[in-house]
Amino acid sequence: MPVRNVAILRLLAVAPLLGVVALAAGIRSLNLGDAQLFRDEATSWYLASQSPGDLLRLTSHETFPPLYVLLLKLWTAMFGDSEAALRSISVVGGCRDSNRHMALGP
Predict the structure, then answer these.
(1) Any idea what the Cα angle at residue 83 is, between residues 80 and 85, rounded to 5°?
(2) What is the pLDDT of residues 24-37, one digit of tens each?
(3) For the segment 49-58, what is each residue's pLDDT rounded down to a tens digit?
């Protein structure tokens, strides 16, 4: 089978997966920045706005590890700290999970 046909078949095999991930992203992104921050989101924003040393010191008193807040700190440096920007990191994670579930099956 020619290489071009194999590439087309691979694209056709992946197309439904890409469609589901795109749909998941669209649904998760609806009204993303409309509501004010909830308490846990505001806490994450506050921690992510601190210096790295303060962030690690403050998260030592929290019930969750600091990795999420460190990632959020990098995320807000790239995309800002609006409600939509803060929540969009969860959209990316949810789309990744949708992709995994589709790839692994039920």
Answers:
(1) 40
(2) 888 888 888 888 88
(3) 999 889 888 8
Residue 64, domain extent:
3-104
pTM above the 0.70 mark?
Answer: yes
* In contact, 16 and 90? CB cutoff 8 Å: no
| Cα–Cα distance list, 100 to 9, 17, 95, 97 (Å) | 21, 10, 9, 5
What are phi and psi for residue 49, nearest 5 degrees? -85, -5
What DSSP string runs through 40-58? HHHHHHHHHTS-HHHHHHH
The CA-atom distances, in angstroms, between 23 and each of 20, 27, 75 are 5, 6, 23
**Which one, of 90, 81, 102, 79, lies nearest residue 28 by Cα?**
90
Total domain count for the chain? 1
- Residues 6+ away with beta carbon under 8 Å from 88: 29, 32, 75, 79
